[in-house]
Amino acid sequence: MASLRCFFFTCLLLYISSPSLAQQSFRPKALVIPVAKDASTLPYLTTIDQRKPLEPVDLVVDLGGRFMWVDCERDYVSSTYRPARCRSAQCSLAGANGCRDCFSASRPGCNNNTCGVTPDNSVTHTATSGEVAQDVVSLQSTDGRNPGRVVSVPRFLFACAPTFLLQDLANGVAGMAGLGRTRIGLPSQFVAAFSFHRNFAVCLSSSTLATGVIFFGDGPYVFLPGIDASQSLTFTPLFINPISTASAFPMGEPSAEYFIGVNTVDPYTVLEASIFKVATEVFINEAAAMNITRVPGIAPFEVCFSSSNILSTRLGPAVPSIDLVLQNQDVFWRIFGANSMVEVSTDVLCLGFVNGGSNPRTSIVIGGHQLENTLLQFDLATSRLGFSATLLGRRTTCSNFNFTSNA
Ligand SMILES: *[C@@H]1O[C@H](CO)[C@@H](O)[C@H](O)[C@H]1NC(C)=O
Ligand SMILES: *[C@@H]1O[C@H](CO)[C@@H](O)[C@H](O)[C@H]1NC(C)=O
Ligand SMILES: *[C@@H]1O[C@H](CO)[C@@H](O)[C@H](O)[C@H]1NC(C)=O
């Protein structure tokens, strides 16, 4: 992993433009958005109000995504939409070069003399080119306990995509919200607009019926009954993958993903083949010692067990815990049954790790299932990832943020 340790992205973030992007005199300390787990397609979804008049836009959360992209081809109506003119400051912030023209009727996503980037559907690994644009977005501020006043970013930068890029995303979804480590990822733009500390935190719910949360800005991050998950975090350096993991990218572009590829688009953790082999062998042996019976795998899972000998606990099925050892033996991420096992039927539980083959672009990609009910704080100023032990151990969950507004 040593080759992945370069910590240069803090420098990149210093270029962020003026805080005057925010129009209000009220200065929020943090923002909060809900994140729901989609029952049919598994990725996590959020809703952000955009455009004038404001319209709720459903987006897939992409932790490693480089920016927000939305379908501008269908139903994009807004009096505040402005394409980024080629060679403008917005284009350079977006890392876009060159000038684009569009040879059909002018509309959002189709204008002359603009710049383009490559919006990426990271679920289907499809990318295309799209106009860089800005429009207003509105979100709820928070004191860390409840949502508060609504605040706006009038000139939020994003990319327009054609409707076909939505293929295989859940019904009603209009794009993806990229939280990646770029100058126009959501975190960087909110930091710039509101002069936040360069932090954001993600807490994914394991239930399709209850929402988790993303916070932009500092904690506290409080879950009922009054548990501040920003306390008691373990920190590890954020690694940068020097090779982009996007479906299409300019040569030499580093990955916008965090850490060893913490990802919300892949539902399950993907391990490089040799790591997968070692990790699953140990797990299978420990499970056998607990009298847990192995049964044939069920795709995409190779390692499955009969649930008949597996007890249920507050931390999920009682199976061997898995420690992802991070920068040294003392810093590890302990994964209990609730995050390691997937119930594929009433009598079969499978280890929710997937064999990524012998040549994946990143050796370990931690999937959404393994992140559920864990608070992850991405501290961009110090290049650290803070992670809590499973909140189940503190008798709360990521779906216990109190969404009743106290504005
Ligand atoms: C862009 O410019 C070309 C050439 O002048 C013109 O044919 C086309 O209609 C313009 N497109 C838009 C979207 O205005
Ligand atoms: C496993 O089963 C064997 C035989 O039934 C029994 O002797 C042993 O105590 C069991 N071990 C555990 C950890 O339950
Ligand atoms: C949630 O927040 C509201 C507004 O502050 C408060 O009135 C309510 O009691 C809270 N709910 C719980 C369960 O504490």
TrEMBL record:
Domain Peptidase A1: 44-388
Similarity section: Belongs to the peptidase A1 family.
Subcellular location as annotated: Secreted, Extracellular space
Chief place of localization: secreted
Any single GO BP term: proteolysis
GO cellular component: extracellular region; Golgi apparatus; plasma membrane
GO molecular function (one): aspartic-type endopeptidase activity
The name this protein goes by in its record: ATP binding protein
Pfam families, alphabetized: TAXi_C, TAXi_N
Gene3D superfamilies on file: Acid Proteases (2.40.70.10)
Keywords: Secreted, Signal
Range of residues in the leader sequence: 1-22
